Amino acid sequence: MHLSFVIPVLNEADSLRQLYREIRANLGAHTAEVIFIDDGSTDESFAIMQSLAESDHDVKVIKFRRNFGKAAALQKGFDIAAGELVFTMDADLQDDPKEIPAFLDKLAEGYDLVSGWKKKRRDPLHKRIPSKVFNSVTAITFKLKLKDYNCGFKAYRRTLVKELSIYGEMHRYIPALAHSLGYKVGEIAVQHRARQFGKSKYGIERYLRGFFDLMTVKMVTQYVKSPLYLFGRIGLLSTLAGTIITVYLALLKLFWGMPLSNRPLLFLGMLLILGGLQFISLGLISELIINRVSPAQRLPLSIESTINIEAPDG
Question: Which of 69, 48, 49, 68 is nearest to 60 (CA)?
Answer without folding.
Answer: 49
